[in-house]
Amino acid sequence: MRAEAQAVAVLTDVGGGLGEALAIALARRGVLVAGIVSREEAGDGGPVLRIAAEVSDPTDVARAFDDIRTRLGAPTILVNTAEVYPHRDILDETPASFMATVATNLGGAFNCCHAVLPAMIKAGRGRIINVVTFADIAPAALASGYSVSKGALRILTRSLVADLGDRFPGIVINDWIPGTHAPRRNIPDGVEPRVAAEWGATLALMDAPMLNGLVFLRDSEYRQHLSFRRRLKDHVLGKSRAPVRLDDVR
Fold first, then answer.
1. Angle at CA 19, nearest 5°, toward 13 and 23?
2. Are the C-beta atoms of residues 175 and 216 closer than 8 Å to each other?
3. Among 105, 120, 131, 162, which residue's beta carbon has the most beta carbons within 10 A?
């Protein structure tokens, strides 16, 4: 676990909810934090540097990250929190509206990864966390663009790990499902953003290479169900271990 004063985190949406709470939680732990916001919210007030940009626009993202590097330094942590959730029947979708959702939820994450990776590779370390959901496993009704784009984001994470994991083990990349759906989707068991933000801040400051590619659900490592034969094989080969819990490392 690392909480160096020189750590620089970028969150791709700090306009409210989880993104804002996570930015504040990281700032409290001594991290320099920049957040992507709308043009009306940009400014230097408070503990978070707010930079206006549209994450779906690669040129705008490149300009924003140049500004962040000039003012705070090269980002060592990227948390892709930006997303849109249109509540729209598939029959009401158009090619333009569908792809606009994909451009933000998937394209925005790729644009920001593209902006931070060169410096992370040069430094030999970095943290990337993609905030995802289980929408690809159980797509929500009236949310085709959201479900497809968030599922594709999980594939992007795995692709990044496949391409970078062996060559750059110091760049640790994870999917995180924070479960903060109560405020926006009226699901009773949702986690309050301020609670999830503490888990997210802990995860962002964990950089052990063995974490690379793991998926975290709320405060714990998430594992898909394994057959008895697979569990037995892992035990015999010494690969079995207890899931990582974020509360255990705070």
1. 105
2. yes
3. 105
